[in-house]
TrEMBL record:
This is Queuine tRNA-ribosyltransferase. Belongs to the queuine tRNA-ribosyltransferase family. Its cofactor is Zn(2+). It comes from Hydrogenoanaerobacterium saccharovorans. Residues 253-259 are annotated as: RNA binding. Homodimer. Within each dimer, one monomer is responsible for RNA recognition and catalysis, while the other monomer binds to the replacement base PreQ1. Binds 1 zinc ion per subunit. The lineage of its organism: Bacteria, Bacillati, Bacillota, Clostridia, Eubacteriales. Pathway: tRNA modification; tRNA-queuosine biosynthesis. Its EC number is 2.4.2.29. Substrate binds at residues 90-94, 144, 195, 222.
């Protein structure tokens, strides 16, 4: 199991990532099924038709509901949710950021109050690895602290030092878990996470430090959480030379189609974001002509497909007028069709990026598509 770099165009990378659950063609976008389901009524079987390669699920949420012990008893996430391809599980580290009012960070780990019922929860590196081992995901993420932006330099220094200590504990615990006969996926992979807010020198040093641990992949965390797009691009450019060339690179929680193209240009291989499904559920659709707000009155009698250049299930069969009607009538079908479209669009975007890298025309693709995909129709 390994990442194989097939070719470069500048810093942009075309590769393959082999896992026990299948080989991922990169660059790739992971479709986010936080609680083992894509919001909007999309099943694991739908995802095959939507060109999904990897699904992402969340450790913290599944630990609370239905419980990782239950999922273990059911044979692991793949069997539980009916998805045969690779699954990446977030470690719960992002909840250290997003549930700031409900948690306390200490050296041993983080004490949470459940956002569901207030129940007290403790999660440290070992607990996160144990939960993810129970889930039997393909890729487990290291437990870290996602630092809020802007952050002080003093706090950032102490936070990333603790995140590094936690990473060492994660690696040790995963090695132990993968050695057990009772472990469902004994080939579970571990990705480390680079942190450091927007301080380039701290980011670089942290990347150097965690690269020495020789993990299966490396993620860039703590971006798109208060920083600007330009600050994010600057961080990627700063640390890219220090990221191992022979390991897959994952930009966490990003982003728009333009963000993805720009990050591929800067050397990133893997992405995830709730944006395509979340925006779709509110009638905001990504198209090859730009971003369309389907709630607008001008679509009330528009019999054209959502996107004439798209062959997703929604665009093949339904008009803008019909989809708008479904949203205005609060029909669940509106969300299902819209989410299908946006996920299909993102996965097709990644296909086009890979094809352009194969052909050596990625920079022309970037120059052509960035002005279009960021435009609101």
């Amino acid at each position: 199991m390994a990442y194989k770099l097939l070719k470069n165009e500048g810093t942009a990378r075309r590769g393959e990532f082999e896992t026990v659950h299948g080989t991922v063609q990169t660059p790739a976008f992971m479709n986010v099924g936080t609680a083992a389901a894509i919001k909007g009524g999309i099943s694991s079987y739908d995802l095959v038709d939507l060109k999904c390669q990897v699904e992402l699920c969340n450790t913290y949420h599944l630990h609370l509901r239905p419980g990782d012990d239950l999922i273990y008893d059911m044979g692991g996430l793949h069997k539980f949710m009916g998805w045969k391809g690779p699954i990446l599980t977030d470690s719960g580290g992002f909840q250290v950021f997003s549930l700031a009012k409900l948690r306390t960070i200490k050296e041993e780990g983080v004490y949470f109050s459940s956002h569901i019922d207030g129940k007290k929860i403790f999660m440290g590196p070992e607990q996160s690895m144990q939960i993810q081992s129970n889930l039997a995901s393909t890729i487990a993420m290291a437990f870290d602290e996602c630092i809020e932006n802007p952050a002080t330099r003093e706090y950032t220094v102490s936070s990333i030092a603790r995140t590094t200590r936690w990473l060492v504990r994660c690696k040790r615990e995963m090695q132990r878990l993968n050695s057990l006969e009772s472990t469902i996926n004994r080939n579970q992979l571990l990705f480390g996470i680079n942190q450091g807010s927007t301080f380039h020198d701290l980011r670089i040093q942290h990347m150097i430090d965690i690269a020495e641990l020789d993990l299966d992949g490396y993620a860039i965390g703590g971006l798109a959480v208060g920083d600007t797009a330009e600050e994010m691009y600057g961080v990627i450019e700063a640390i890219e030379p220090y990221m191992p060339k022979n390991k897959i690179r994952y930009l966490m929680g990003v982003g728009t189609p333009v963000n993805i193209i720009e990050a591929v240009h800067r050397g990133v291989d893997l992405f995830d974001c709730v944006m395509p499904s979340r925006n779709a559920r509110h009638g905001h659709l990504f198209t090859w002509s730009g971003i369309r707000n389907l709630i607008n009155e001008k679509y009330a009698r528009d019999d054209a497909p959502l996107d004439e250049q798209c062959d997703c299930p929604c665009c093949r069969n339904h008009s803008r007028a019909y989809l708008r009607h479904l949203f205005k009538a609060n029909e669940m079908l509106a969300m299902r069709l819209a989410v299908q479209h946006n996920l299909y669009f993102y996965n097709t975007l990644m296909e086009k990026i890979r094809a352009a890298l194969d052909d050596g025309t990625f920079e022309q693709f970037r120059a052509q598509m960035v002005p279009i995909l960021g435009k609101r129709i």
